[in-house]
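Onboarding guide, step 5: your first structure request.
Type a short instruction followed by the sequence, for example:

Predict the 3D structure of this protein.
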Amino acid sequence: MLVYVAQLLVSWLVHGPWKDPQGFNFPQTKMLDDAALLPTLVEGTRLNALFPLALAAVAAGYVFMQKSFIGFQMRVAGDSEPAARYAGYSRRRTIWAGMLAGGAMAGIAGIGEVAGPMGQLTEHVSSNYGFAAIIVAFVGRLHAVGILFASLLMALLYLGGEHAQQYLNLPSSIAKVFQGLLLLFLLATDVFVHYSLRWTSAPAGRPSNQPS
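The system replies with structure tokens like these:
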């Protein structure tokens, strides 16, 4: 996955050519100038100008997936690859469209993090937000509106994990435990929705109280 290549590239930059000479040897760049920072929408908070852009991205994603022909092809290919192949849809085209759109959104989110609350580039920028986004997509049922509300839920899990670490002396990985439990129960629910356990009579020599 190219995410690891990008992480190693950022690590090399902040340890090498972009390293702040006055940063006490920490792997980080100089603080960005005020002109390079995103304007804050509400004073005293971390809410910046990327928030309305994120809402616009959700609306654009909804229009793209629900109203465009390429979005329809992607939904068909995601539901059934044989059906998409039978309809003549290009599998390579749908993969590239999804990768490029997702990469563009991830890049914009990274800009908002660096030019927003952090104000500089370090080798630990995203706190694995990209992998958490996979859970957000599953919880949101791959729908733009559902993903919007699922992202708010995931943000609460991050904040809850930080507060649990501070006030309950729990390990820092508690937020990831919450995320994993959320995904586990969601997938388990899908299994029980689409499949059911049936008790049948066992063959000769097999206990009858065992499921088949």
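Each response can be followed by summary notes, for example: Residues 127-196 form one domain.
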